[in-house]
């Protein structure tokens, strides 16, 4: 969700991030075909386009897409966090639910955006820092319980990344009509560092494509959706 007051009512925000070419892609002479036109518009160039081919002149398959927010490879982790997630913290500590997830083919930058590196921390770290700061600031009036679970959906199968030995888990509706992942591990946590340790542990468990995909990200792979749920509920 965007960090602007008028977007508070908006239920869903879709952001697109274009990652830089990897060294291997540059060595192969690859070029970027996705171009951010402004903060919402992205143009996908036709990779087969040949300006000298007069038979195909004016038949470009160039396509334009609109998003709530679009980032190119110059966007910093901080900018992405601010525009997509920071605005959710206030609702979260008031008892509202929020979900942030990254979606895309293998090697497109989901882990980089969500987890990041020590020098360039991603959305998880920045969210946890702000969340625990907000909890601290309101701790005179409120008490919170924070818990987390970490799961992976791969080929429509759900696995618990904090307890992968539990096998595939089912989705069930509880007595309140809410959809739950039956048997998922839920860890009560007390600070951002502990959550990060659990995230690192869970991340090691997620499936990688057998092709060593991170060196040469293929464009069409079975999408894997990684979901993290962290709840801070007024007691
Ligand atoms: N915005 C970015 N800036 C710099 N490097 C990036 C960016 N996005 C991705 N990368 C790099 O591209 C590579 C692939 O990214 P990443 O591992 O995040 O992909 P992924 O979508 O999580 O892949 P998988 O689904 O296989 O886990 C990594 O080496 C990562 O550091």
TrEMBL record:
GO terms for molecular function: ATP binding; microtubule binding; microtubule motor activity. The keyword ATP-binding applies. GO terms for biological process: microtubule-based movement. GO terms for cellular component: microtubule. ATP binds at residues 104-111. Residues 11-235 form the Kinesin motor domain. Keywords: ATP-binding, Coiled coil, Cytoplasm, Cytoskeleton, Microtubule, Motor protein, Nucleotide-binding. Its main location: cytoplasm. It is found in: Cytoplasm, Cytoskeleton. Pfam families: Kinesin. InterPro entries: Kinesin-like_fam, Kinesin_motor_dom, Kinesin_motor_dom_sf, P-loop_NTPase. Belongs to the TRAFAC class myosin-kinesin ATPase superfamily. Kinesin family. PANTHER family: CENTROMERE PROTEIN E, KINESIN-LIKE PROTEIN KIF19 ISOFORM X1. This is Kinesin motor domain-containing protein. It comes from Alosa alosa (allis shad).
């Amino acid at each position: 969700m965007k960090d602007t007051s008028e977007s508070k009512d908006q239920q869903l925000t879709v952001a697109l991030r274009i990652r830089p070419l990897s060294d291997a892609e540059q060595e192969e002479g690859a070029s970027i075909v996705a171009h951010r036109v402004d903060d919402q518009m992205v143009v996908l160039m036709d990779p087969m386009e040949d300006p000298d081919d007069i038979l195909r002149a004016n038949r470009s398959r160039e396509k334009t897409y609109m998003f709530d927010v679009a980032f190119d490879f110059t966007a910093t982790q901080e900018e992405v966090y601010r525009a997509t997630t920071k605005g959710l913290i206030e609702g979260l500590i008031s008892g509202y639910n929020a979900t942030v997830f990254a979606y895309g083919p293998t090697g497109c930058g989901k882990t980089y955006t969500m987890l990041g590196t020590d020098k360039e921390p991603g959305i998880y770290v920045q969210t946890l820092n702000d969340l625990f700061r907000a909890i601290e600031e309101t701790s005179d009036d409120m008490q919170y319980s924070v818990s987390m679970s970490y799961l992976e959906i791969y080929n429509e199968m759900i696995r618990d990344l904090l307890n992968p030995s539990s096998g595939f888990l089912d989705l069930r509706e509880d007595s309140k009509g809410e959809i739950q992942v039956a048997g998922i591990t839920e860890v009560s946590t007390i600070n951002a560092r502990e959550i990060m340790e659990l995230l690192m542990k869970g991340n090691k468990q997620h499936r990688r494509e057998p092709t060593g995909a991170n060196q040469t990200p293929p464009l069409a792979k079975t999408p894997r959706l990684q979901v993290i749920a962290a709840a801070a509920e007024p007691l």
